[in-house]
From TrEMBL:
Annotated source species: Marinomonas primoryensis
Protein name stated in the entry: DUF2635 domain-containing protein
Domain of life per record: Bacteria
Amino acid sequence: MITIKPAKEGVNVPKPDGKHLAAEGETVKRSAFWVRRLSDKDVEIVKPIAAAKAATKKGE
């Protein structure tokens, strides 16, 4: 599993199911589809959402 988000703000990135990737990012199964999106620089890998929230709470 990888956590990704659109590489550019305001750009809708379609998912294989026809919906769009959430602007704040989503955790998805690593697949050829997402590897191609990464190669095309349509998406970027980010810290997992739960880990990012935990890090924010520790820093408060």
